[in-house]
Design goal:
heterodimer, A: alpha/beta, Rossmann fold, nine-stranded mixed beta sheet, two-stranded antiparallel ribbon, 6 helices, 15 strands, globular, B: alpha/beta, 2 domains, seven-stranded parallel beta sheet, five-stranded parallel beta sheet
Amino acid sequence: MRIVVLIKQVPETKSVKMDEETGTVIREGVESIVNPLDLYAIEAAISLKDQYGGETVAVSMGPPKADICIKEALSMGIDKGVLVSDRAFAGSDTWATSYILGETIKLLGDVDMIICGERATDGDTGQVGPEVAAHLSLPVASYINAIESFNNNSVSLSRQVEQGDEMLDVALPCLLTVVKEVATPRLPTLDGKIRAKAADIQLITADMLKLNPDYIGLKGSPTRVAKIFRPKVTRECELLFAKDDATIHAGVDKLYAFLDSKEAL
Amino acid sequence: MNNAKLWILAEQFEGEILKVSYELLGRAKDLSKKKNCQVAAVIFGANLGDAELQKLIDRGADFVLAIEAPELKHFDNEAYSRCMLGMIDKYEPEIIIAAATSTGRTLMPYVAMTAHTGLTADCTVLDIDEEGKLLQTRPAIGGNIMATIRTQGFMPQMATVRPHSSKPAAPVEGRVGEIVRVDGNDFDLSSNIKRKELVLSSEELQLQEADKVVIVGRGIKRAENIKLIRELCDLLGAALGATRDVVDRGWLSYPHQVGLSGKTINPKLCVSIGVSGAIQQLAGMQTAENIIAINKDPEAQIFKVADIGMVGDLFEIVPVLIAKLKNGESL
């Protein structure tokens, strides 16, 4: 069995800034980490391998320094890392990204399962998983919160939906997007770190894939950012300062009166 | 159907139309007026009743496109996506809007990829420009900024919006529209996904359905302090929500999470306690009708979206509020 995990390097949250002129993210000087929700996908892949054997491959599309994130996946126990990187990919939206990742998976060949995190914490779209599945015409099972059992032909899963948990059997090959409940990510081991440091990461560039040049990068992206702006805040807040017993009680009385006036008691 | 250029994806559960469908129709009403077009509600199911489908018409659909077969009773991405792509081919809608539910978030990207068009997730504002194109506004880059996105040169223009991010359209008795029934068996309904059963849970629903929600943030300091907030919830009759910080620390489970990476809520009352108000968090609750905030930092962003705020130590304020709620006017 061969499992591919799609991972993304994302900027450490809260330190992100945008170039207000171009609407693009300023990535210089911002520390990158593995998308935290991808750690659950990595863990799910490794624990499947632990139980059933096979090979796990982490694939990431991004700038050359995304190899740091791939190394982190390797240090957790992923067997092999693949970096998909080319200047021609810059500006790709989810459609173009999924096209490139889908073509990369075709090139890797013989994949039984693809596992993705639910979404990346920077773009927050959650679209690339299902879109890669669509490009490869694979069944997709999203919001997986438990992988129950596995055999050569299919996998039994639990899928989190609004009303509860759906129990599914999905034929292989397939693509899963997983949520936090699926597994508790293990920490990198010292051995893993040593192995990751020495490991070669396979680099895949545009000319190694059979890509339609009109389908990649900014040019190949159906969506465009038309403008960016700061969200407006609209409410006038009445601030009550609670410094001592008297002001606390006075403030609480006002909150109570507010609740009462809004019929919220 | 020819002028029904705007589609919404309605959803049903056990044959009953879900409220989120009416929220989409609420948004569609305004957009269709600006675009000067009609609205079609697409719905999948098995043996959907006329009376139930009429509810979509009452709330603003000019057409209901009901695609039915036993295999379509529950969401199956393989079967749903083939039907949807077939319908898009046949009727060529310009805009498709779905809710960011487990169904919408799976079907929409799958269909957009195959139809080779753009999709914008979790839009908070949708609008129509002078050319009749869809303007899709969403929080970007962790919610620090808003981005307005266009789908240029590709059709249909597709977007999802968060459930509970807008008010449902009100019904208009006797509104006239047409129900178009499509036999799902016209399409390949075979699937590699077999749904064996659904294990129902209730916690998920409570938070988004609640009239009142108390959201607790990192200011609560440790898991055992949450019981203070639970007591307040009981007295107010409120559901308990949490910020990402609180969930990441394991103090409450993920179903409690409110914000960009959790749930969006639109209750009558939201009480935020020990929540600083990162924009990602505000994105999940700022449309609440009334907002109360308690935080020790007077500069906290949460106060910018609140109607009334108390600056001080929550461990001093909340017990007094609890006592007041217990005793009413007599305190």
